[in-house]
Amino acid sequence: MASDDKNDSNGSGPWGKPPPGGEPNVDVQELLQRGQDRIRSVFFGGGGRGGGGSGGMNWRTTLFILLGLVVVWLASGFYRVLPDEQGVVLRFGKFVEQTAPGLHYHIPFPIEEVIRPKVTVVNRTDIGMRIGSADYSGSGPVRDVPEESLMLTGDENIVDVDFSVFWIIKNAENFLFNIQEPPGTVKAVAESTMREVVGRSRIQPILTEERQGTEEAVKELMQETLDRYGAGIEVTQVKMQKVDPPAAVIDSFRDVQAARADQERIRNEAQAYQNKVVPEARGEAARIRNEALAYQEQTVAEAEGQAQRFLAIFREYRQAPDVTRRRMFLETMERVLGDSEKIIIDNQVGQGGGIVPYLPLNELNRTRTSTGTGQ
């Protein structure tokens, strides 16, 4: 046979094997060509020498790879929203929906994408100062920004106000699409609002007792402005860090404040003295008035009693004038001579002998009483 002759002529066996005891005759160029044909048939379905029978296998492999890529692309649409986040789904850059915390799915990129802003993180914006530390503890070096902090009060005084605004995201859609650069917007609104509130107030209350009221007023006005913009931001707190007059006049202002404090102290002392003296004077006046009223009532009562007594005597006198006249004389003499030394003189007796002996019975009784007590 021709094949046998050919194999024999090449010095090999019928299956291309070298004869026993002989050296192999290998065609290296042919082996390389066969390898290239096989690779071409696998990836491109081409038919090199001896590769036409493997076309079906090559198409199946390519289809499997494409299906795998599609599965991986579809699986990339799964996403998770953390508890402190809010998912915002965009389709070709346009808002589609908001998603709550949990596992969700969207059409993979580039058709849809998801933005997950932190909605529970408290953000801080400083106005009038810059804190050097990266955290919000306020422990780092502070740099003053006078172009932001110097403000004009309602009584035409200049005050230096440094304050901080704390805010969170309450609506992710509005936060992302209604305003540009949210931190800058919050800063601009905060500075404008503080200037408006300070411009309606006097400097003295802002520096002393009205700081909390000023903070609340700024917070309410800021929230109203941001809601009108549809910013999706909630202001949680406004904290005034420093409220002072400008540095150039702060010493003179402190002297004025000290003088006002002394004035207030002296006024309070005077008020305390007034509160002490006036009630005492009012009490003394009330006492004198009451004593006068009592004396008036007593005198009127005595006068009325004397008048009633006189009228009673006058009625008796009209009924028996002689008897009444004698009784009145005797009662009067009793009152006059009751406690006096008495000497009785009889005018009918001659000169020097008209003295009538008088026996003071009262004195005898008093002498006996004192003698009995002494024994």
- Overall spatial form: rod-shaped
How would you classify the helix and strand content by structural class? alpha+beta
Rg from alpha-carbon coordinates: 62 Å
Count, helices: 11
How far apart lie the N and C ends? Answer: 195 Å
Task: Sketch the major β-sheet.
Answer: 4 strands, antiparallel
Number of strands: 13
Overall mean pLDDT: 78
**Poorly predicted ranges (pLDDT <50, ≥5 residues)?**
1-24, 46-54
Our estimate of the beta-strand percent is: 15-25%
- Residues in helices, as a percent range: 40-55%
The helix/strand order is HHHEEEEEEEEHEEHHHHEHHEEH
List keywords for this structure.
13 strands; alpha+beta; 11 helices; 375 residues; disordered N terminus; four-stranded antiparallel beta sheet
Q: How would the blueprint of this fold be written?
A:
Elements: H1 2-9, H2 28-44, H3 55-75, E1 78-81, E2 87-91, E3 94-99, E4 102-105, E5 112-115, E6 123-127, E7 129-131, E8 142-144, H4 146-149, E9 150-152, E10 158-169, H5 172-177, H6 182-199, H7 203-207, H8 211-229, E11 233-244, H9 250-319, H10 321-337, E12 344-345, E13 355-356, H11 361-374
Antiparallel strand pairs: 1-4, 2-3, 2-5, 6-10, 7-8, 9-10, 10-11, 12-13
